[in-house]
Structure formats: structure tokens, C-alpha cells
Protein: Ribosomal RNA small subunit methyltransferase E
Organism: Tumebacillus lipolyticus
Amino acid sequence: MQRYFVEPEAIQGQTVTITGDDVKHIVRVLRMEAGERVIVCDGIGHAFCVELTDLGQDRVLGQIVEQLTDQVETAVKITLAQGLPKGDKMDMIVQKGTEVGISRFIPLEMARCIVQYDQKKEQKRRERWQKIAKEAAEQAHRTLVPSVAVGMTFERLMNSLDGFDLVIVPYEGEKARGLREVLSERPDVEQICMVIGPEGGITEKEIATALAMGAIPVTLGSRILRTETAGLVAAACICYQFGEMGG
Amino acid sequence: MQRYFVEPEAIQGQTVTITGDDVKHIVRVLRMEAGERVIVCDGIGHAFCVELTDLGQDRVLGQIVEQLTDQVETAVKITLAQGLPKGDKMDMIVQKGTEVGISRFIPLEMARCIVQYDQKKEQKRRERWQKIAKEAAEQAHRTLVPSVAVGMTFERLMNSLDGFDLVIVPYEGEKARGLREVLSERPDVEQICMVIGPEGGITEKEIATALAMGAIPVTLGSRILRTETAGLVAAACICYQFGEMGG
């Protein structure tokens, strides 16, 4: 069944109002009619089977038939703080990371970022990434749309780690402590943050800061992963460890 | 240190001969001189520290200083049989799959492939994918260049599974048996084949054939992964399970 995300406010009692681009998709692309059903998610974890009742040019109305209770979202919540990569790599990171199960993306300004974070362009880029996250969430049948945070500096992130139970930093210089060892020791974690360096990697100074703030450098094995691959792979391993990748 | 792959024949006794595009890279791009060192891999699992002795326009000679014994390659060998995806997605699959640790790629013609396998274009595409695998292997510090097989039909693959200890087929229709369960039951496997369907998925008929040939359908969890993401994610989980992702 076709899936759409709406804002939580678009669901009032049993009535759902779909607006924006999705109207065109329902009415013109799929040419759906009253009586047909779609799945509507509110983006914060709830999914409903909805029967369409009124299809207009600007909005589509529907009635909730039932709430869906499949557990699609991971119990452990994963945040990817990604050192800003070159070109359009962040698009791919947001798309694939959403598929795997990441809940939140933080674009990170780090010492070796080649692309400098541009305050002027920021709003536009963030909107773009948020749209990619929404589309990927629909495609992956998620009920939560991962959020893309406003970009921040590495230092600022390091000073706002309170909400996380575990902060890991995959780092080429770490040879001993593996991801599996760290995760196995912490079966209770609920909020994990992964910090991934940009193309040039993480500086020793950044690692020292991270260590001082309680983050744990880990190795992801002896093969060197590109910046756009590391977060995705680490997220897959975290999901696997916590039984979220097909128990 | 810079890394290069050569054919095994390019290493004779202690002397290494580098030819092709890498000569330009060493001589013109990096402007290296005699006495400088690089890492040379033979692509079948051996790596050497090599001191350059003679730099020409067509070939660079060097002497082996020592063999490197770091274990970069995974003990378990992973083959990805990938239902041919649209556009240039296979490029990304080969690049990222090489980083994660896949040893062999098989482009697979399946019932729901949108792109038909083109015998005429085949040689050229395979050369392209093989080049991507070599470059990704260098970047990932692997000592083995994954091979890209000649494309084959799903039926032909199903009749040539003898060499594998375990054949898994991530399948949306499989709800019960998870990847972790299957891998946990088989700690002894050495050769794993993953069969990934194209955009449209695997047909029920293909699943029936796979089952009959001893392959095991598995779920990768409740989030639906795109075809270009599934193999990469499953490979990461296999490496994680076998302690290859930072034990």
C-alpha cells in the first residue's frame, strides 16, 4: 500500500488531511479514488491505514481505518554526527542512513572539513536533506522521519552530549578497541551518537577533546572506510547488535 | 604510505615492476624519487613495503624491503550476487562493497531486472566495475582486489552454488528468520553467498528455486532496504558477526 507522511497536526480525531506534493501524487500520478486505502504516518512513530474519502486538487481527506502496530523503529536511537563531506555525499548519507535506521543527523563542522559550513546556504541544504530523509523513510516503511539538525561545530557537539548514553568515534588511529566490544559491554544503551570524521579524518586534537568528554574511539576493523560509508556501516552493526537487523 | 596494486607476475624475487596509470601517479602526480617507499599489493592477498629504485616514464622499479603481515582480509569470504540495478548503482555497490570487505561480485540477471543484461556491453562494464574494485581496494587498504565475475542468470547461479557453505537471500517476504539467527547457527562458514534482488525484488518463483537449491531466505529487519543498500548492509553485519568489524 502507498505510504505518506503528514504533520502530526494533519490528524484530527479519525480524519486525516493530506496536503502538498502528495496530493498531486495521489490524484494525478496514481489517480486514486474515494474508497481506496493508503498508509499515513505522522512522522513521530505512528502509522495508520486510511481510507480516502474526498480527493481535491489541493487536499485529500481520509478516515482512519486502523492504527498499525508493526514495530518498524529501532528501540535504540542512533544519531549520526557527520563531519561535512564534499559534494553531494551528504545526500547519500542521509538517504542510506535513513534506510538503515538512523534517527537523527547532525552536519558537523570539523577541523579537516574541506567544505566550509555556509550559514547562508544552510537553510536550503537542510531543507534538501530533510526532504531526502522523508522520502527515504517512506520508501523504507519507517514511521519516523529522521530529523536533520542545524549544523554545528565539533566543539559545540562535544558540549552537548548529555542526552546520549554512549558516544562512539570510529577512528583510524584506534587499533585495540572494537565496536563490538564496546556495544557488548553496554546492552542497556538507548541513545547512541556516532561521530564520523570528514574525508581527511579526525584530528588528534579532536580525539583528545572527544575522550575528555567521555566519547569512546573505536576501530571498525582493518579496512579503511570512506567517510560516507563509515556511518552507514556502523549503524548497520549497531542495529545488528541490538537485534534490529532481523533478530 | 601510498598503495598500489600490481599483477602477481610483476613481482619477481625482490624486484617489483609497476606499469600503467600508476607510473604517471608516482612520477608526475606525486613526483616521487628513488629511495622513497610505497606499499605494493599483488591483489591476491600479499602486501609489501617497496623502496623505489628506478623511475621511468613507462615503468617504475622497486625493491621489496619487507612483507607486511597485517591481517586486512576477512577470514570469511563474502560473494555478492547482485540483481542488476538501474543506472550506475552497480558502481556504488562495487565501491562500497569493496570497502566493507566483499571478495567477489556477480552481476545477476533476474526476473524483475529493469535493465536487461547486454552481452555486447558486458565486457566494457565489467572492466569498469573491476577498475572501481581495484581503486576502492587501494583506498580501503585491502590486499585483495575483489573480482567482478561475468554476469550470469539467476538459474545458472543456482546451479553453481557448490563452492559456498551458506547462501542467504534477503527477502521482504521472509518475516521469521533473521540474518543473525542464521549466522549464529553457522560459526564455521568460510564462503558465504548473498543473493540480492533488483529494484523490483525477488519473485516467488526465484525464492522457490533458491529454497530448492538450499539457499536460506532471511529478513534484514522491518525497514525496507533499497537494492543498492541491502548487500552492503548485510556484508557489514556478516563482518560484524565474525569479528571482522573491529572485534
Residues 119-139 of chain B form the longest helix (21 residues). Residues 97 and 232 of chain B are 5 Å apart (CA to CA). The two ends of chain B are 25 Å apart (CA to CA). The longest strand of chain B covers residues 47-55.
